[in-house]
Amino acid sequence: MDLSIVVPCYNEEGSLPLLFSAVDEALADSGVSYELVFVNDGSSDETSRLLHELPTPASAERIVVVDFSRNFGKESALLAGLQRAEGEAVGLMDADLQQPPATLLEMYRMLQANPTADCVAAFQEHRNEGAVLSFFKHAFYKTFDATSRLNAMPDASDFRVFRREVADALLSMPESFRFSKGMFAWVGFETLPFPYTPANRVEGETKWSFRKLMRYGIGGVLSFTTFPLKKIAAVAGLVATLAGLVLLVEVIVEQFINPAMPSGYPTILCVLLLMGGLILATLGVIGEYIARIYIETKRRPAYIAKSVEVRTGNERE
Ligand code: UDP
Ligand code: MG
Questions:
Q1: pLDDT digits 0-9 by tens, 36-80
Q2: Rounded to an integer, what is the distance from CA 177 to the centroid of its chain?
């Protein structure tokens, strides 16, 4: 099998029929043998029923449907899809047709045409979103690259096609907090950019609220760097110590010049507040990391699948 197309689905009942026909249309005469790996990420609508009942696209070799026991998030869904994918190359695609199957095929062709490359990643030439969101996303990439010393391709999405080696490398990473943008940067390999402009969602709304994105972004940065843990407290401590020393010298000198001078409450208050704030902030950072260590040490699986169905052609196995 040439290509596995992995599609995470969360409440995508409106998009799925269109997706099935779009995939068939794009790949039918391509000469590429492919499978579809759908992961139903605990949808509460008809997604699961549709995945099981929609006729398998005639051009697909087989279709795999993994049903999660609840919503575990897109990253977990991608992991489950990767684990089931058997193709020589793997493509990741959203269910909402913002990332057209025809484009996926072009990316696959580009990968085939470049034997030295291991991955083709679509990056958004023009963002179809507001200035505020764009600003935060940009700030995120800057922070991520600076702190992780990795190079996450800015504006590269999860819309990718990559070789089996890359898939195996991703699967060899055991962490349960999975952050694909970082993981793709971490595993390395030669990645070619593929410019594209995402289409509008065919149906429904984005599943990401600003808060969810923010939490996801902060989590992503923290999981690829220990910079805040090691450096913030150390640097702040050093600065505070130096300032304290200077203040001490000043106080002693002052005593000689003007022995009757009353001691300065405002100074003490400032120093107290400053130090208290620094200590609490540092504790907060340490807490973030300990929470992560706690989660990882529990070694819980990234998801629970309640069923897996494999269909070949139009038959069920
Ligand atoms: N998705 C998922 N689990 C979630 C949220 C989203 O599997 O908890 C899927 C969703 O069905 C879609 C893809 O991830 O196929 C991207 O989601 P969405 O289109 O909402 O994100 P956006 O395109 O706005 O970044
Ligand atoms: Mg989308």
A1: 999 999 999 999 999 998 888 888 889 999 999 999 989 999 999
A2: 10
Nearest CA to ligand 1 atom 12: 94
pTM (2 decimals)? Answer: 0.79
Q: What is the DSSP string of 205-257?
A: --S--HHHHHHHHHHHHHHT--HIIIIIHHHHHHHHHHHHHHHHHHHHHHHHH
CB 160 within 8 A of CB 91: yes
User: From residue 145, how far is each of 22, 74, 210, 227 by CA, in Å?
Assistant: 36, 22, 21, 12
Helix axes 131-148, 210-223, angle to 10 degrees: 10
Tell me which range, 18-32, 118-132, 253-267, is most confidently predicted by mean pLDDT.
18-32
- Atom index in ligand 1 nearest the CA of residue 205 equals 20
Instruction: Name which residue sits closest to atom 24 of ligand 1, judged by CA.
Output: 206
